[in-house]
Design a protein that fits this description.
Helix content is about 35%, strand content about 20%. The chain is an alpha+beta fold and about 90 residues long. A three-stranded antiparallel beta sheet has the order 1-3-2, covered by helices on one side. Helix 2 crosses helix 3. It is elongated and about 70 Å long.
């Protein structure tokens, strides 16, 4: 029994089950694996308080990674992206 009180086997007998349509021409999106690691390595290689900076598309990810590794950063918008500096 489902929490709603509907017997699953009863519902399955009265509704024909149709499989999803499978499409093979839509490419799988690229993986974002490694982006966090690249940001982490970049932040750790930067000198705190220097003029070193980098541009990124994902400002919120930079802040999450910085928080994970205990680094303070600041950013400013620049040409539709964000320029990031390491503070401490």
């Amino acid at each position: 029994m489902k929490p709603t009180g509907t017997d699953v086997s009863h519902a399955a007998r009265h509704r024909p089950v149709e499989p999803f349509a499978i499409v093979s021409v839509v490419p799988c999106p690229g993986s974002r694996y490694g982006v966090s690691e690249r940001i982490k390595a970049t932040l750790l290689s930067m000198q705190a308080g220097s003029d070193e900076s980098f541009l990124t598309d994902d400002r919120s990810l930079v802040y999450r990674v910085a928080k994970e590794i205990g680094v303070n950063v600041t950013s400013r918008p620049e040409d539709g992206k964000a320029r990031v500096w390491r503070l401490a």
